[in-house]
Amino acid sequence: MEHLLGQDWEIIPAGGATGEAFFAIKDNQKLFLKRNSSPFLAVLSAEGIVPKLIWTRRMENGDVVTAQQCLAGREFSAGEMAGEEAPKLLKKIHESKPLLSMMARMEKKPYGPNLMLQDIKLTLDQELYSISTIKEAFHFLEKEWTTIQCDDWAVCHGDVNHNNWLLSDQGETFLIDWDGATIADPAFDLGVLLHWYVPKNKWSHWLHHYGSPLTKNLEWRMKWYTIAHTLLSIQWHQTRGNRFEVNYWIKDLENFMRNGYACSYPLTKHL
């Protein structure tokens, strides 16, 4: 990284699971660097969804490094996800034609319930499937996936955990970490966000700021995608040996299957 900027810059790892992100600091300047970030970062920047893209450079080994403006600010708290900023930005994302066009040029195909169910079938190991709550959830998905119909595909983020939402000191809201973005039903994002962060009696109010009514159809789609997402999350943690998270999300899934809502805000960032 140093040879891209010069010897005067201090390069500091920015954390994260991939180890591909860094901060570059020189005097009063600070950049956020990432290796092989999402190829449609430029469109996200132009749409004001992520902090401004400063430059993109290709390294000798073929890796692409991007530098973004590093703004003073902070992550959203879990409680702030129930406010007005998150639904307004998510609606902007879901309605963005430039984002959808870019994903189509990248030859991304819609990630519908059939493909999501297929991923679950391919990844869910026998140890997890033997758990009654997981088996019940899987059978629900398998039985009901044909009832999940989407008329308007959108670019979905795929990991709307509050750690990915940033509020700058200037009051700007951003959604970062787009590595898992896909074309999907908006309920793909809405389901987990509402179930994790917003009390059910406030869903209609939250969706008012998003610009959509809470219909039975939307609620049904959100339920299906939330269960599917939770199964994939459990397997993700299982593969990495994160027993605490596995047990936590199984308990959360059990509560959701019984009562129709999550038991609490997510403890960790996942997927």
Automatic annotation (TrEMBL):
Span of domain Aminoglycoside phosphotransferase: 14-210
Pfam families, A to Z: APH
Keywords: Transferase
Source organism superkingdom: Bacteria
Gene3D superfamilies: 3.90.1200.10
InterPro entries noted in UniProt: Aminoglycoside_PTrfase (IPR002575), CcrZ_PhaseVar_Mediator (IPR052077), Kinase-like_dom_sf (IPR011009)
One GO MF term: transferase activity
Xref: PANTHER family: CELL CYCLE REGULATOR CCRZ, PHOSPHOTRANSFERASE YTMP-RELATED
Protein name: Phosphotransferase
Organism listed in the record: Lederbergia galactosidilytica
